[in-house]
Structures are given as C-alpha cells and as structure tokens.
C-alpha cells in the first residue's frame, strides 16, 4: 500500500486550523462537564483532522479515489465486453402478474 500526500497545501492548512479549533472548543467544554463523552469524541475527531493536515494524507479521500478508479475500470470492462464470454443475456421479461 503506497501512502503519498493526497491533499493540497491549502486543504491541509484548513484541516489544521479547523482541527485545532475543534480541539480547543471540546477541551474547554470538557473542563466544565467532564462526564460528557461527546466532548472527548469531538476532541479525537479534531486531533485526527490536525494529524491529516500535518501528514497531508486523508484515508477517506484515498478510499473515494480508489472506489472511483474501480468504478471506471468496471465500466470500461463492461463496455468492451471483457468478462462476458459465455454469459447469456440476463434480461428478465416483463411480467405484470
């Protein structure tokens, strides 16, 4: 698995800024209400965005790019007729009953 930066500099700076904002907000709320787990979850999500900005790699973006490549490959394979050798046309006739 090749991991290379898949987000730009501006996107990384936005992620770092918003991530630090979320971490600061959630930790300030956690001080006032430490029994709420939602603030801890928000702090982890903010820290994840900061890490994505620093490393410039987003796993969700990589997953979406990989999925779109697979869809394009599948469309190319079905358009060219590859992989359909020996398969019968599977159209089902219309049955109104």
Mean pLDDT: 87
Instruction: Please give the share of residues in helix.
Output: 55-70%
SSE-based structural type: mainly alpha
Could you list the spans in which at least 5 consecutive residues all have pLDDT below 50?
Answer: none
Question: What percent of residues are in strands?
Answer: under 5%
The main pleated sheet reads as: none
Number of strands: 0
What value does the Rg take, in angstroms?
23 Å
Assign an overall shape. Answer: elongated
Series of secondary-structure elements, N-terminal to C-terminal: HHH
Number of helices: 3
Spatial gap, N to C terminus = 52 Å
Structural account:
By secondary structure, this protein is mostly helical. Helices cover 67% and strands 0% of the residues. It is built from 3 helices and no strands. The chain has helices at residues 9-32, 37-55, 59-80. Helix 1 (9-32) runs antiparallel to helix 2. The longest helix has 24 residues, at 9-32.
